[in-house]
Amino acid sequence: MKTAEDARGVHSEGPRKLGLCLLCGLPAAGKSTFARALSHRLREERGWAVGLVAYDDVMPDAFLEKASARPLPSQWKLRRQELLKYLEYFLMAVINGCQMSAPPNRTEAMWEDFITCLKGQDLISSAAPESPSCYLLTKTAVSRPLFVILDDNFYYQSMRYEVYQLARKHSLGFCQLFFDCSLETCLQRNGQRPQALPAETIRLMGRKLEKPNPEKNAWERNSLTIESPACSSEASLKLTDLLLTALENPVKYIEDNVEQKETDRMMCSTNVLHQADQTLRRIVSQTMREAKDEQVLPFNLKLLAEELNKLKAEFLEDLRQGNKKYLCFPQTLNVSDVISFFHYEKDNIAQKYFSKH
């Protein structure tokens, strides 16, 4: 692995150096202020091209028709994935040295905000009038090392892992900065904002926050904790080393990497685990209601409930651990497949008690 010392010559000839850096932490932890200062510093001191993408600037009004409306979590997830797709279109244009085209399926308002974001940082310009959906890369974007900084909360590990997957897919550098700010400080700062978030939203996020864990997750090894937006000289040196090391050591995707496939499976399993748990609970409850309607004896109802709950627990354990008692990994990693297998096993159990009656 190349070190930061090897990376001092980032202006030398060689392959384009591209990196993704994500900022994570609670709202009002100081991420946006830090991101703007870091972008300015990298442009002025290092001569790099920088694309700062603040999710709050690109996403908020893109799909809320009513000012008072709040999106569902599923909507937020879809829009976050859509934004990463936009980013991938830009990165592919940079990697291939070609124009950036607009994706066929897009949320127009959000796409326009994304384009405005890139134009404002001198990374793209409008193409010819006859090609309104294509954009030209600027000299800045194609002639210098480029770091894209993503400014959002990224409080779930799975959110950050989606960015890592993008870096791995295109062999980009990857690193992340975690802003370790107390809940009380974030609440105080949030209260001073013109458009403050509900305090309970920040408290809830604080309870859900999954900090980077480099010791457990190899893909998070390029992580740095920022304890104050005003970086000390020592922290500033660590940050520079982190960015340089990430640029010089892009993530490599190895198709037969068993360890990486296991990480992918675990992350995907985590994403569907909650949905599966809620759905299986409803199926068990519905089956018990049907048993009561069929006037299954109380003693047998108790046995049926015990068997179904045991089955549910075993399915969820399969999903967590990748066991093969009921589920065939890695193919079966979506909720619909889990439900289908569960229904089959559940019917086998229920039939015994319904037949007794």
UniProtKB/TrEMBL annotation:
Keywords: ATP-binding, Nucleotide-binding. Gene3D superfamilies: P-loop containing nucleotide triphosphate hydrolases (3.40.50.300). One of its GO terms (molecular function) is ATP binding. The keyword ATP-binding applies. It comes from the Eukaryota. This is Phosphoseryl-tRNA kinase. It comes from Suricata suricatta.
